[in-house]
Design brief:
This protein is mostly beta strands. The protein has two domains: 28-111, Elongation Factor Tu (Ef-tu), domain 3 (Beta Barrel), CATH 2.40.30; 127-183, PRC-barrel domain (SH3 type barrels, Roll), CATH 2.30.30.240. The chain is built from two helices and 13 strands. It starts with 27 loop residues before the first strand and ends in a 6-residue tail after the last strand.
Length: 189
């Protein structure tokens, strides 16, 4: 998987912890504006990428909040605890950046690095139909999250299932072109 941001890791988290493709299908949600930081237009950003600062490598951030959609240019940024702190070239004061609180950070999928064989971005796995090795359809991957031990897929069908990303013991095949995944999983579990 490849991490949310694109760092390969078997099932990466670019588009990771509960990360999804942009609902308008124009990119991948890779972070969220948290709150203003200081008075000169800096903001805290929750990064969904692995590593945390991987978000800083993307150009042309699209910010989306309600009907607002805006492109911003990152002038500076750095890690600050569990957040990034970022200064946008276009914004110079706390009040302007406060309007962006809770905006999603979206980047174009084509900015992600190519993955190695067997590595996947989370955003590419979301929406795949999941079948057991015996052919029973479990549902569709709705989201993924990290647990520390392994990543977990949230599969929604007639009911919700939490299926661990363990290759090859659980996840036996991924066919992105066919839009499907096969898992060795008891459908009654």
């Amino acid at each position: 998987m490849t991490a949310q941001d694109g760092s390969p890791s078997g099932a990466n988290t670019a588009g990771g912890a509960n990360h999804t493709a942009d609902p308008d299908n124009q990119g991948v949600v890779v972070g969220k504006i948290a709150s203003p930081f200081g008075v000169k237009g800096w903001t805290k950003v929750v990064s969904y990428t692995q590593p945390l600062a991987g978000l800083m490598e993307y150009n042309n951030w699209q910010l989306s909040k309600g009907r607002m959609r805006r492109t911003v240019d990152v002038q500076q940024g750095r890690e600050h605890g569990k957040f990034l702190v970022v200064k946008f070239r276009e914004i110079d004061d706390r009040e302007q950046v406060a309007l962006l609180t809770n905006a999603e950070v979206i980047v174009a999928r084509d900015q992600f690095a190519e993955t190695e064989q067997g590595d996947y971005y989370w955003a590419d796995l979301i929406g795949l139909r999941v079948f057991t090795t015996t052919g029973v359809e479990l549902g569709v991957i709705d989201s993924l999250f990290e647990t520390g031990a392994n990543d977990v897929m949230v599969v929604k069908g007639e009911r919700e299932r939490l299926v661990p990303w363990i290759v090859p013991d659980v996840v036996t095949s991924v066919e992105l072109d066919a839009g499907r995944m096969t898992v060795d999983w008891d459908p009654d579990f």
